[in-house]
Design a protein that fits this description.
Blueprint lengths: L8 H4 L39 H5 L4 H4 L3 H15 L5
């Protein structure tokens, strides 16, 4: 499955604990990554500074659903189920 251009659910809905350029402490769930452009594209895509957790994430229907809203819902639920203290 290919990422849907402009979705950015994984760049907003989930927390990222590793440093991101401009976000040295990572980012909490629900916060927009500072590297997202106005049209929801990764500003550091393909660059060495992109965190491994981001570059290793692969789109799949179980995570992305059939549309952007479904992706946000699925990823928000997964975050709640797996993040300490959010259950």
């Amino acid at each position: 499955m290919e990422c849907r251009t402009g979705c950015a659910a994984c760049c907003i809905a989930i927390s990222i604990s590793s440093p991101i350029p401009g976000m040295p402490e990572g980012k909490p769930a629900g916060m927009r990554c500072i590297q997202l452009t106005d049209d929801n594209r990764c500003g550091i895509f393909g660059q060495a500074s992109r965190p491994a957790v981001c570059s290793g994430l692969q789109a799949e229907e179980a995570m992305c659903g059939s549309n952007n809203q479904e992706a946000f819902h699925i990823l928000t639920q997964l975050e709640r189920q797996t993040a300490p203290g959010l259950r």
